[in-house]
Amino acid sequence: MRQSIRILVALLLALLLAGASWARPQEVALSELFPNQQHARTIQVINSVLERHHYRKWALNEEFTGEVLNNYLAALDANRSFFLARDVERFERNLRRLTEELRRGDVAVAFDIFRLYRMRVEHRVDQALGLIGQPFDFEQDESYEFDRSKSPWVVRDEDLDDLWRRRIKNDALSLRLAGRDDDAIREQLRKRYEGLARRVRQFTQDDVFEMFANALGQALEPHTSFMSAASSENFDISMRLSLEGIGAVLRGDSDMTVVQRTIPGGPAAESGLIQAGDRIVGVGQGEEGQIEDVVGWRLQDVVDRIRGPKGSVVRLQILPRTLGADGPTREIRLERNQIRLEDQAAKARVLDQLENAPGLRIGVIEISAFYRDFRAESEGVKDFRSSTRDVRGLVEDLTRQGIDGLVIDLRGNGGGSLTEATALTGLFIDQGPVVQVKDSAGRIEIERDPSPGAIYTGPLAILVDRDSASASEIFAGAIQDYRRGLVIGEPTFGKGTVQTLIDLNRYVPGGSTDLGRLRLTMAQFYRVSGGSTQLRGVEPDILLPTAEDIDRHGERALDNALPWTRIDAVDFPGASKTSLRELRERSSERVARDPGFEMLVARNRTLREISEQQRVSLREADRRAETTRREQILEEQKNAFLRRHGMTPVPADEEFPDERLLEKELEVIAQIQLDEAARILADAILLQGTTRTRSAMRD
């Protein structure tokens, strides 16, 4: 259930925002960690709200409670390195008791489990501190299983002792490979493990309750979560503040803080130095501040260190995704800045050097988010900023430039405003429904094109990838259903559900205490053709070879995600069907000899190999050899491709790389898929024999 917990922490701490620092919490006595009456009242209200309003129908029985327990244990001990099998068996024997107590609003079992967890953490940290000072033999042939999230719980104490010995040895070897000397390694590991025990001792009653309440929500599906009064206050502060920080969405993954994605226009994205999947292992303030080791920290604490005022500098120690768990770290410098709406604004350009279609001009509009300035709109500003308004202007400008076709690039677009997705679709269809929304009561509402008449009726293609989600899927799905244009790329993320934030105090009239808020899934999106965008996403008309291994990404990779379903289609003006076979064959022939796609596919396979790895060698020579092998595979493919484009690659081991050159490298690599999408659209234009859209697409 670890993936479900990731969704929660990514939600609560999504954007790294500037503002007042949270006060450092105090340690809490073990005797204080018992539930109170407010917790009982809150869990009863949560149960009631979920039963009445959640999209998934459920019953509070032992099967459900078993899922809650699994989620709770995953939140506490994701890597199964504190509890023993006998502990878990004892917890599971109490499922009937836990079910009955939950019905009454009693969460005593959750606190019993946490108190045992805290004692186990302190015991293992004492063991770790004792091992840190001992010498390790890095020539011995043994290994360490660093990802135990799916492994059986350890049965014997002595086996868990050995697991921890290997864990400390692995930590020491990783720092050794990063160039630390023995004294520095011992000091850093001492701080790391003392910090782990300290942070666990800082958990309050409300922290324990919030974690358990979220385990309950995650048993329904990944996007349902609870925020206590304190978390709600921090959330509100975040939403009120300007987006000043590094511009990244983070998630917790066991002991690591992982970059889920970077925000277009933010310092992280603009630098080219940090990518999705990279792990943040250290944070330093200013140009000279000491780097703090943040391995094992709670995500909230890491965010507190990273965010800060505009213009200030933060230094991050990064473990790149491409090097796996055993690679060397890299330090990067970022200047915090405000992420403005205009930084995410749609952008346009023209491609007119297509080798398969000399003379054709293909317009490209890149949309990184479905944005709308709701504040300006509410204040009566007539020309408030929105993605639809910006795209309208860009299309009109491209049309004046005499384009023969248009590609809408939605790669990496995680969604945004439903209103914008609907309105933007309306720019390319005459009129009709865009998306259906079915709520938990079974009622269906249809969102329609608000402005009859299309501003562009020419050849159209939509480029998507595995990170195109939510509103992007609504837009791409509607264009595909209307057969208005080609959808090209990778199957999309599969986020087809609608969440709402409910103030729990509404359900306790006259209550004097703040019970917090519940974010729950209350509806699901369906295409006009009847199928949901949930789980499956939008399947492109023409798949690019980077679509391999898609089941390990997006909603498909989440535990307990809502299934794909279908409802009745609605009437909409579709076009007649024609074949895609010729377009697919031409594209397949091109990409088979394209060095760019050769590089991307090789990179994906190496990253898949890294993501599937659960065990690493503890022999230093083997680790260095494996790291070198992966670096060579990734760098040789990339460098060969860049040199074909007349570029001198930035050396991977350069301590302070030129950010402009790195950004240029990323632009050239991103152009690989876009160029092929433009070539596919050009083929469609030439095969049709006209610059009018080919509106019918089928297998």
Automatic annotation (TrEMBL):
Residues 1-23 form the signal peptide. One of its GO terms (molecular function) is serine-type endopeptidase activity. Pfam families: DUF3340 (PF11818), PDZ (PF00595), Peptidase_S41 (PF03572), TSP_NTD (PF17804). SUPFAM superfamilies: ClpP/crotonase, PDZ domain-like. Its EC number is 3.4.21.102. Belongs to the peptidase S41A family. This is Carboxy terminal-processing peptidase.
